[in-house]
Write a structure and sequence with these properties.
heterodimer; A: mainly beta; 12 strands; B: mainly beta
């Protein structure tokens, strides 16, 4: 079965510093896709970044990058130059390979950026 | 205007009441999903639909039913609400491909409280 584990329930970071949010996954599939979503206090789910299992390069989107270590089955999100607006819940998710194509989510990490 | 809308955004109801949550999308996507989010947990799939004649149960469908009235509309019903159905509910859509990077687009969420 596929599973996503996020072991950091909450984290603090100083404004303008970088922060890494951990995500490990479990799957027996050779091909898979990993996503990160941001959920601010207003509640909506905002797509941040995607990494495919066969992508040779780590994904980057602006201040977001993904530290993908396939052998360790980890897909950590790195946020550079943290801003106050980065304070939110962050969810790692994996595309299900069953017929639903649903997203399988981790339990999330709450990030608080300190001024 | 938002591509995926949900109504109502907030609802407080009493145990035993019937409740309908509605989702509409203008993205033209065939696939639609209903997820539930509980505090400290990620999102879990309730039901999904790949077209108006295709309805499928997710991992936590007990106590819920759905209706796909049109390609653009997918409603979730709680026939007899109970307090442990208090949660944040999300509708999501995606394109009908099996591609791993097929992103899901989320509505703003409906916060439901059952007293």
């Amino acid at each position: 079965a596929q599973k996503i584990t996020q072991t950091q329930p909450g984290m603090f970071v100083q404004e303008k510093e970088a922060v890494t949010l951990d995500c490990t996954y479990d799957t027996s599939d050779q091909s898979y896709g990993l996503f990160w979503y941001k959920q601010p206090s207003s509640g909506e789910m905002i797509f941040l970044i995607y990494q495919g299992s066969y992508d040779e390069q780590n994904a980057t989107e602006g201040r977001y990058s993904l530290n993908f270590q396939k052998a360790r089955k980890s897909a950590n999100l790195v946020i550079s130059a943290s801003q106050l607006g980065d304070s939110a819940m962050y969810f790692c998710a994996m595309r299900s390979m069953d017929s639903s194509y649903k997203l399988i989510f981790g339990s999330g990490t709450r990030l608080l950026v300190r001024p | 205007d938002a591509d995926v809308t949900q109504t109502p955004r907030n609802r407080i109801t009493k145990t035993g009441k019937r409740i309908m949550l509605e989702c509409s999308q203008t993205k033209g996507h065939d696939r639609m999903y209903w997820y539930r989010q509980d505090p400290g947990l990620g999102l879990r799939l309730i039901y999904y639909s790949f077209d108006v004649k295709d309805i499928n149960k997710g991992e936590i469908s007990d106590g819920y039913s759905v209706s796909r009235q049109a390609q653009a509309k997918f409603s979730l019903s709680l026939e007899s609400a109970i307090p442990n159905q208090t949660a944040l509910y999300f509708c999501a859509t995606s394109e009908p491909t099996g591609m791993l990077d097929n992103e899901q687009f989320f509505g703003p969420g409906t916060r439901l409280t059952v007293l």
